[in-house]
Amino acid sequence: MEIDDDASDDIKHFMLAYKLFLLTIMMNRTVALLLATISCSHAFSTQPSVSAPSSATELFAEAEDRRSFLTTVAAVIPAVAYSAPAFASGGATAGKYTTIPIAKRRYYGRVQEAVHEFLLMGPAVIKGDLTDPVVQDFFDVTKTVVVQGKKKDINGVCNKKDGDCRAADIFDSRYNDMKTTMYLLGNAFRINQQKAPDNLPTVKAAKKFFKTMNLFERKVLKNPSSNDKAATALYAEALDQLDIYLDLVELPPTESGNYDKEFSTLVGESSRIT
To answer: pTM for the whole thing?
Structure first.
């Protein structure tokens, strides 16, 4: 699965800020515990000393107090260092952490556009017509721009040897992009960061939908018919499975009317439903 450059940069910036945040918490805890220990220790009294220890016994007692203090500090620091939780997702995004709001801004538009185009197939599929252009386009790997190309010139000047600095878009089918974004969005809906992605309810629901739709795709691409009742049954089954997934990722159901319009597939500025 490919993730666009902007998404990759967002992840790197977030991870850096998050690590600095954890480091600050650890340092604050360490300082607080050290100050608490010092205030309770007789080895470093804030009162001015009136006179030096008058005997070897007092000198020995003072040394013992200081050794006890250092031993306490040595025990406190590792405990503080290991008390900070580590957050990382597994699987395809191992070592990275994506919050739900970030995932929504990044994938809500693409998932909703995919649902919109999925529902557009409905009238043709109900008739069993897999040769309809709407059905064919949904699985055509040359029809959908999944990554917009970026111009390669610098301030309007092309420095390429071949002189070609035109933006090159990356194409794929809407269905393939739907699978990618549904998986990545579902992977962000997690409570336990140690849980494998395939064990998440959202990812399980998505993969169940993919399994049914893969069978449907095979019928469309290999031997499309204008009267395929088996394909109609598969579409109906996939529709029910899609509604289960949409509920888990906090999106409206297919019958809500939310998907009657087209959606922008660019990374959004808000995690709200657009």
So the answer is: 0.60
Q: What is the DSSP string of the chain?
A: ----HHHHHHHHHHHHHHHHHHHHHHHHHHHHHHHHHHHH-STT-SSPPSS---SHHHHHHHHHHHHHHHHHHHHHHHHHHTTS------GGGTT----HHHHHHHHHHHHHHHHHHHHHTHHHHHTT-TTSHHHHHHT-TTSEEEE------BTTB---TT-------EEE-HHHHHHHHHHHHHHH--S-TTS-GGGSHHHHHHHHHHHHHHHHHHHHHHS--SS-HHHHHHHHHHHHHHHHHHHHTT---GGGSGGGS----SPPS-SS--
Amino acid at 138: F
Confidence at residue 164, expressed as pLDDT on a 0 to 100 scale: 72
pLDDT digits (tens, 9 = 90+) for 97-110: 568 889 899 999 99
* CA distance linking residue 166 with residue 160, whole number of Å: 10
Check whether 228 has a pLDDT greater than 90: yes
Q: How many CB atoms lie under 10 A from the CB of residue 18? A: 13
Residue 113: burial class (beta carbons within 10 Å; 0-12, 13-18, 19+): buried
The answer to whether the CB of 105 falls within 8 A of the CB of 271 is yes
Q: CA torsion sign, 161 to 167 to 172 to 178?
A: positive
Contact 111, 251 (CB under 8 A): yes
Q: Which residue is it, tokens 């579409």?
A: 235
